[in-house]
Amino acid sequence: MYLFGESEVQNYDILAIQESYINKHTDPLTTYSLALKGSFHILLQPTPKEEYKKRPRVCFYVNRGLDLATWEVQYHNRDLSTLILHTAAHGTIHIHNIYNLGVNSNEESIISALQTAMAPRAQLEQLLPPGTITYERVNAKSTIDLVWASHNLANRVVSCDTKLEWWYGADHVPISTQFDLTAIHVPPLVRKQWNATDWDLFLKLMDIYNWHPRELNDNEAINEAIHYLVETINQAAEQATPTK
Q1: Which residues contact 24 (CB under 8 A, 6 or more apart)?
Q2: Global pTM?
Q3: Looking at residue 4, what is its pLDDT?
Q4: CA 43/CA 56 separation, integer angstroms
Q5: Nearest by Cα to 18 from 173, 123, 165, 142
Q6: Which domains does the chain have, with CATH numbers?
Q7: CA atoms of 127 and 210, how far apart (whole Å)
């Protein structure tokens, strides 16, 4: 999928993908993108290899920068998955990724499953500007990909429109939706440059912090000594070891 190669995609918290490439040789079935460099959790409905013909048609990619404890996924069926996201100040958001074949398909419409998943929620608002072209093939143009939101969430929309610069001639045009919400991110990992440590200062600080071998008579004493040693090393490193 070409849009995964866009550097800006790495800054998105959530990607809702439909009809992604499915690897039929893995069990369960999987999907992936080398371009994303492992920076997203891939949420695809678990499906046995022998059920490839019933492979999932919706998938979420969740940025690894989001706190794992703040989201969860529900797989309703192969055409509907829901990502539940707990925000810092605006409650819980339910994001539904829906693949609907439409009225001309012999398969049952996914809308009924969506209604069950959303009950008793209602009163949704369409976020895309009227007349937005989201599907284009040869001479056919249409608006078949839609973005709906509850009234409260619609009031927090910053932008919702197609991303033509990410469109490389595929049938469906990518859509970018941004909300004024505060997701809970994992604190940035601080890495130390241990090879650049001022060891003279480090050892001096260890002495100042009064670290010395202690008499260890039981497990409690051992645990206390280890805890104190780790704390002392961390405090000394704060001053003697630069960060990357």
Answers
A1: 49, 52, 55
A2: 0.71
A3: 82
A4: 11
A5: 173
A6: 2-179 (3.60.10.10), 194-240 (no CATH)
A7: 62
